[in-house]
Amino acid sequence: MFDTESIASTDIAAPRPGYPDRAALFDISIVIVSFNTRDVLRQSLQTVVQETGNLKIEVFVVDNNSRDGSVEMVHSEFPFVLALSSAVNLGFGAANNLALKQARGKYIVLLNSDAFLRPDALRLAFQHMENAPKVGLAGGRLMSRDSSWQPSARMFPSLRSDFLAMSGLAHRFRDSRFFGYSDRTWADPTEPAQVDWVPGAFSIIRADALRQVGFFDPDFFLYSEEVDLCRRIKNAGFNIMYWPDIEIIHIGGESSRQMNSFEMSHVGAQLTRWRMRSTLLYYRKHHGSTAWRAKMLELLLYKLIALRNSFSSSQESKDKVQINRKLSRLMLQAWQDTNGGRISPPRPWTLD
Fold first, then answer.
1. 3-state DSSP call for residue 14?
2. DSSP one-letter code for 348
3. Res 218 pLDDT > 90
């Protein structure tokens, strides 16, 4: 069952700390953030329609100032959707906050516009949360179109996990509990587990948990926002769960794996800089001076990789030298952008 009201909004006021204390009117509020993703957004909404079943659901699409006709498509093809439009690109967390201020569901489902619900996903998510009152947030099993598994249940970042990931050791020894700790690549993905955080492509959140901890921290424009939210929910005494019988097709992870090599294009460099900014903001917020150590760790690794490749005359090695030197410069820029993780640059972060 859907709410048939349709609204448009350009309100980008700061979110309130949490929901007003009121009874839930819906079983689930689904929130989808879109930025120039009209065609996959249509597919995502189609799976929502297919999987609603007997659940009482309201659906929000928050458009981050798209230019591809996404809002018009939603209004014409999905009139039951509550369409919120921002005049600027707010990023992932702050855009979700626009809908969270209005959501009236007992649970909130966050769904990427390039993520598609598999059969029974919503019913199972609702049922699991009903049966596990100590769970504040949970995720499902993310898969590519070919049904291959994507990392879906993770542990909080640490300097150790950063080193293992950037050095390639985590990928090389995926079956090791030590090396594969962060992404739990050693674990059986068909087994449910209590974890630290789940990716934002799909998650179901207890509204009562958000009442306690508040919404997404808008300082995280892109990257680390779901990690921060999960940490706050865990700190409030709730559990974070991974339930593999909730299956989601996620195109984003599929696309990233198809990149055989990292090309330091202008856009790629800027997204990397954004990731670095968010990493520094996260470490400063939750671990204080560890932000400085995180910066130094990345700089050291980039320097060592560049040094190792400088002894080879192959073009591939020369390219790696240049890429890692550029990564070092990007980290120094990110450190300056955020004053060492203490401040977030004004939104929207731009591809300058």
1. coil
2. S
3. yes
Q: In this prediction, what percent of the chain has a pLDDT beyond 90? A: 81
Cis check for the bond before 348: say yes or no (omega within 30 of 0): yes
Torsion of CA 227, 229, 234, 237, to 10 degrees: 180
- Burial class for 139, CB neighbours closer than 10 Å (0-12, 13-18, 19+): buried
Does residue 190 contact residue 149 with C-beta atoms inside 8 Å? no
Whole-model pTM: value is 0.89
β-bridge mates for residue 83, sequence order: 61
According to DSSP H, which parts of the chain are helical? Answer: 38-51, 70-77, 92-100, 121-131, 159-166, 169-172, 207-213, 225-235, 251-257, 266-287, 290-309, 315-337
Q: pLDDT band for position 352 (50/70/90)? A: low
With contact defined as beta carbons under 8 Å apart, do 111 and 29 qualify? no
Average pLDDT over residues 57-63: 96
State how far the Cα of 190 lies from the Cα of 167, in Å rounded to an integer: 28
Q: Hey, what are 46's tokens? A: 């189609």
